[in-house]
Write a sequence for this structure.
C-alpha cells in the first residue's frame, strides 16, 4: 500500500466536519482517486471515507493488482460477472457495500455523495457510471442512513491539490513533454493530420509506461492544420485526413494521463519560416501567455488573469479572435470547463496555493488558421509554476531546421 496523502486526508476530514456529515461515499473514478489514491479502470469501484479518517474501497476482483496499491485501510473485492447468473454492477456491490458500512459503523450516519452532472475523464474504452441509480442502492443497503449531495464540497476539494498531487500532475506533464519533443521532430509535409496525431499519442504511452511508479499512461492527441486549426476553439478537437503543407499552422492538442492525473497541453507549429502575419499572431499569443503568468499568485482573481491575457490580445488587434476563457482547472480532469478555478471574464473565483489549471491564450482566424499555446500551471506560495515549460518561444515552434530567428537560448 502506498503512503497515504496525509494532507489530502486532513482536508477531507475538515470538509466533512464543516458539512456536518459522518462520511462520504463516491463512485465517480475522479473522486475515488481523490479519496483513496486509486484510479478505477472500468468505473465500478466505490470509495468510502469517514470523518474520523477511515478509508475503504470496493473494487472488482480483476482490478486487484492495481487496487491493492491504494491507501485504503481495507479493500473489498467483488465479482461483477459470473457464469452462474446475469447481474449488474449494482447487484454485485450490494454485499461488499453492506459489509464495509457495517465495519465503519455508518448504518445510521449522515453520508455525503456526488449527485449532479459531472465531467469524467475516460479511464478505459468503456466505463460504468452508476448515475442516479446508485442512490437507490444506497437506500436499500443502508436504510437507516441519511444521504446528502455534496457536489460543491467535492469540487472545492478537487480544485486545490496537495503537494503530492501536484507532483503527480508534474510527472504526467513531463511524460507529455518528451512526447511533444519526439513527436514534433517527426512531422513532415505530406503527412495527414491523423498521422501527426498518432505519432504524438504513440509517445505518450511509450514514454509513460516504464517511468518509475507509473502503472497506466496514455492519452489523446489531436492535430488541426491550416484552416482547420481556426476551428480549434470548439468543444472538441478533431484530426482529419487533410495533408499538411509547409505553409500551414499546425495546432497539436494533447490530454494525457499517468495513473489518473491529467495534462492539458497545446502547441502550434509552423513547418516554414514565418511571414509577417504569422509572426504577429505568435507574438501576440506568447505575450498574452506571459501577461497571464505574471497575474497568477495566491489571492489573485481568476477573472483578472483572464483579463491580463485578453487585454494583450486586444491590444494586438485580436480581441475578437480569442473566443474562449483563458483557462480552467486541470489535474483530476482532462477537459472540463467547469473545473475550478475557471479563468473566465465572469469568474468569481480567487486563486489559492495548490490550484492547478491551464493557461491557453489563442487566436482563431477563420479561413486562415489558429494559434493556441496551452500550459499547465500550479499556484505556489508566491506565483505561477509552469509545469510544461517547453517549446514556449517562436524559435522552438518553427520546425524549419534552417530557421535561426527567435529560437530559445
Amino acid at each position: 500500500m502506498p503512503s497515504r496523502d496525509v494532507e489530502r486526508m486532513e482536508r477531507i476530514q475538515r470538509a466533512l466536519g464543516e458539512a456536518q456529515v459522518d462520511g462520504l461515499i463516491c463512485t465517480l473514478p475522479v473522486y475515488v482517486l481523490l479519496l483513496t489514491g486509486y484510479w478505477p479502470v472500468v468505473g465500478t469501484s466505490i470509495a468510502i471515507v469517514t470523518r474520523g479518517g477511515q478509508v475503504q474501497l470496493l473494487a472488482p476482483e480483476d482490478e486487484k493488482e492495481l487496487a491493492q496499491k491504494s491507501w485504503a485501510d481495507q479493500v473489498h473485492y467483488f465479482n461483477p460477472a459470473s457464469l452462474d447468473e446475469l447481474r449488474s454492477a449494482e447487484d454485485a456491490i450490494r454485499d461488499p457495500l453492506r459489509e464495509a458500512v457495517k465495519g465503519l459503523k455508518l448504518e445510521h450516519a449522515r453520508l455525503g455523495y456526488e449527485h449532479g452532472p459531472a465531467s469524467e475523464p475516460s479511464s478505459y474504452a468503456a466505463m460504468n457510471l452508476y448515475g442516479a441509480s446508485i442512490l437507490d442502492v444506497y437506500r436499500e443497503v443502508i436504510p437507516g442512513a441519511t444521504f446528502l449531495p455534496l457536489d460543491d464540497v467535492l469540487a472545492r476539494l478537487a480544485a486545490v491539490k496537495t503537494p503530492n498531487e501536484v507532483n503527480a500532475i508534474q510527472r504526467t506533464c513531463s511524460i507529455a513533454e518528451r512526447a511533444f519533443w519526439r513527436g514534433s521532430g517527426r512531422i513532415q509535409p505530406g503527412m495527414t493530420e491523423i498521422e501527426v496525431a498518432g505519432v504524438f499519442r504513440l509517445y505518450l504511452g511509450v514514454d509513460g509506461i516504464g517511468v518509475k511508479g507509473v502503472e497506466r499512461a496514455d492519452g489523446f492527441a489531436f492535430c488541426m492544420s491550416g484552416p482547420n486549426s481556426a476551428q480549434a476553439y470548439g468543444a472538441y478537437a478533431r484530426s482529419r485526413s487533410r495533408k499538411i503543407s509547409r505553409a500551414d499552422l499546425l495546432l497539436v492538442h494533447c490530454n494525457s494521463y499517468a495513473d489518473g492525473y491529467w495534462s492539458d497541453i497545446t502547441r502550434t507549429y509552423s513547418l516554414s519560416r514565418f511571414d509577417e502575419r504569422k509572426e504577429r499572431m505568435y507574438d501576440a499569443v506568447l505575450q498574452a501567455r506571459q501577461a497571464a503568468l505574471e497575474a497568477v499568485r495566491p489571492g489573485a482573481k481568476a477573472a483578472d488573469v483572464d483579463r491580463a491575457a485578453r487585454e494583450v490580445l486586444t491590444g494586438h488587434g485580436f480581441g475578437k479572435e480569442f473566443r474562449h476563457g483563458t483557462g480552467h482547472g486541470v489535474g483530476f480532469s482532462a477537459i472540463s470547463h467547469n473545473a475550478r478555478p475557471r479563468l473566465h471574464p465572469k469568474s468569481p473565483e480567487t486563486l489559492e496555493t495548490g490550484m492547478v489549471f491551464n493557461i491557453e491564450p489563442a487566436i482563431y482566424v477563420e479561413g486562415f488558421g489558429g494559434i493556441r499555446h496551452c500550459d499547465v500551471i500550479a499556484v505556489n506560495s508566491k506565483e505561477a509554476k509552469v509545469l510544461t515549460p517547453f517549446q514556449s518561444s517562436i524559435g522552438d515552434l518553427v520546425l524549419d531546421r534552417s530557421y535561426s530567428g527567435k529560437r530559445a537560448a
Remarks:
- The chain has a mean pLDDT of 95.
- DSSP finds eleven helices and 15 strands in the chain.
- Residues 163-184 form the longest helix (22 residues).
